[in-house]
Amino acid sequence: MRIEVIGGGSLGQLFAASAARGGAEVVLYTRTIEQAERIMDSGIQVSEATEHDAWKIRFPSIVARTVDHFSEADGKLRWIVLAVKQKHLNDSLLAKLQSNVRAQDRLFCLQNGVGHIERLMEALPEVPVYAAVTTEGARRIDAASVFHAGKGSTSFGRTASARQQSSVEQVQAEKMLMDAFGSGGLSLTVSNEIENAMYRKLLINAVINPLTALWKIENGALLEKEERITTMRAVFDEIMMIYSAAGIEAPLVWWEELLGVCRATARNRSSMLEDVSRGDQTEAAWISGGVVELARRAGKQAPINQTLLNLIEGLDK
Ligand SMILES: NC(=O)C1=CN([C@@H]2O[C@H](COP(=O)(O)OP(=O)(O)OC[C@H]3O[C@@H](n4cnc5c(N)ncnc54)[C@H](OP(=O)(O)O)[C@@H]3O)[C@@H](O)[C@H]2O)C=CC1
Ligand SMILES: CC(C)(CO)C(=O)C(=O)O
Q1: Which of the two ends of the chain, N or C, has the fewest CB atoms closer than 10 A to its terminal CB?
Q2: Which residues surround ligand 2 with Cβ inside 6 Å?
Q3: Which residues form the signal peptide (predicted)?
């Protein structure tokens, strides 16, 4: 089996290096030639937070090329791990996928937020598209090294509109993927309710990310002031109202779980705070904007999430 990872950032380096460590044949596609050459020369180093340890994976266990070399598979089972950000999923990358990804391939999408799975399924109607929801935390150090900041797990599955009776090939392909990543140190499980995981993660990101980015605080600091908790609750309640109108099952215990994520990631700077601090485009359009779109489709308004989106986009360069 071959695993091809598109995007050599934080998650891309972690997933590519882990799959290679687990014995899969791995190709990592980078945006720049400099990064591909650097990885071919020195490999990828992964620093583990928990083990105070670092490990390295080198050519020939891992091959790096620029994304211009991404092409059709040679008939072998191929998983394509899409590890770019939402903003990178532009027409040019979609066209590249349309030209080179076939029905026998499988697409594994790690993006936070919503909207991308529908878009990919529409662009690639023959291809099995899997949504992946991960609690792994990774931070790119440089072109060839990554910090595995938080050890988590990843659920993956096909959304209801695409889910069919599992074929033997599908079950085998999913098992091979789980085995490869499992041997490399990443825990993956197949989920038959991936939407539930996606909407739970969307809610967590839609509350934590814009507020931490606007207030310029670490995740744990959200719990330090009454005004912050009251604001979080207002965003949470609006999303729960929209989920209910959209027919999305969302238990109230998600509030406690959200507070738990703030505690568990207390010293983290959210990805949106990081993007805003660097002056980069954020994923707000697919997070707060994703909530606004869900509301629109359910015939509801989302004034709080719309305002958060405007505030964040107003900051963007
Ligand atoms: N990091 C994390 O811990 C987590 C991230 N996620 C989600 O995963 C997704 C990826 O996040 P993350 O890894 O942090 O993002 P990064 O910004 O670290 O990585 C994205 C990478 O994609 C590369 N890229 C952009 N366009 C292309 C292209 N056309 N072809 C090939 N490579 C390209 C970028 O290259 P270059 O640097 O050269 O521009 C960059 O290296 C996001 O949607 C995020 O929300 C989810 C959970 C946890
Ligand atoms: C869970 C959380 C909020 C952790 O920081 C995250 O996913 C992010 O920063 O994007």
Answers
A1: C
A2: 112, 204-205, 208-209, 219, 261, 265, 268, 270-271
A3: none
